[in-house]
Amino acid sequence: MRRLFEYFRSSRSKRSAQLAKERLQIVIAHERATRGGPDYLPRMRQDILEVIRKYVDVGDQDVKVNLENEGDYEVLELNITLPDRPS
Amino acid sequence: MSKIIVVTSGKGGVGKTTSSASLATGLAQRGYKTAVIDFDVGLRNLDLIMGCERRVVYDFVNVINGDATLKQALIKDKRVPDLSILPASQTRDKQALTQEGVQQVLEGVKELGYDYVVCDSPAGIEQGALMAMYFADEAVVVTNPEVSSVRDSDRILGILQSKSRRAEEGQDPVREHLLITRYDANRVNTGDMLALDDILEILAIPLLGVIPESETVLTASNAGAPIILEEKAAAGLAYADAVARFLGEERPYRFLGNNKKGFFRKLFG
Fold this sequence. Notes:
The complex is a heterodimer. By secondary structure, chain A is an alpha+beta fold. In chain A, about 55% of the residues lie in helices and about 20% in strands. Chain B has 13 helices and eight strands. In chain B, β3 and β4 (about 85) form a beta hairpin. The chains are: A alpha+beta, B alpha/beta.
């Protein structure tokens, strides 16, 4: 019985460090993706999203803003996924 | 060629000052002329950890402002030859550390023939922390096995890679070292604490050392003696190992409990 109890205790707490690791991997991946870009990037993304929403219904994940360095200049890439056209 | 090492973390309370004191003391014990500088303007504490608080006459900002010479301000350690401390100023003016001023002091220290300058960064990412990082050749990133500390360390690595002088001038990047402190092997084994390999997998920088959680760290700071001088304490020995690795020696990792080498330790260890 005791061993059973300890088994559950350890499997519960195994998840504690595991959970920490998973949460960190997600948040750090997100922060690295926006790192180095100008501070206005998230706000600009939001403004673009609102302009598009005046015309079509797009979700938060449908607008992707990507800034890349190519030699001496930076390329701002906008990727907007439009919903299927209603027939 | 003297080298500038920043001890940084982003998050507060993870052991930057404790680590700065021990790494600087360890380098001096090995015969390298070493200066350790407190960049925490307004919250001076390195002097207490090093046990020289009653000998502070001049500080970092006095030297920048020309009120004292570097030689007057540097406090010679009484235990280890070749070790000096430059205390932080207690001024509340956070802008007191100008880039020109810091550069002038660091160059002055180099001219005095020091091999290593250890910069003890304050927490956060404001002026003092940015100045401690800016001129660095090497960075020791102090991290606790805890989510907020790991995240802040990642952010600090981003700043080192973009805002340091080496980054701005397109030189070789700042050499990064991970120093994990307050590591509790028992809690790692029960799955309650992030393991060394988890942290290495996330931060992906070379490992310098793992300092075990230890009661001796508190008693050492109570006494004003860097923990590395405690030759019987696990934490002191772990710092001595870290100094040896910093100088390019191979040392096995002690105090990790289960010593199975994971993939990421093979890669970064």
